[in-house]
Amino acid sequence: NDVSKLAPGGVQYSLLTNDHGGCLDDLLVYCAGTDHFWLVVNAVNTEKDLRWLQDHAVPGVCVADRSAEVALLALQGPAAQACLQMHTAEDVSGLAPFRWQRMQVCGRPVVVSRTGYTGEDGFELYLAAADGPVVWTQLLDLGDRCGVVPAGLGARDTLRLEAKLPLYGQELREDITPLEAGLGAFVKLQKGPFPGHEVLVQQKVEGVQRKLVGLRLADRQIARTGYQVLADGQQAGWITSGSWSPTLHVPIALAYVPVAFSAVGTCLTVDVRGRLAAAEVVPTPFYQRPRPGLSPAPASVQG
Question: Which of 45, 60, 301, 302 is paired with 133 by a 20 to 30 Å CA distance?
Answer without folding.
Answer: 45
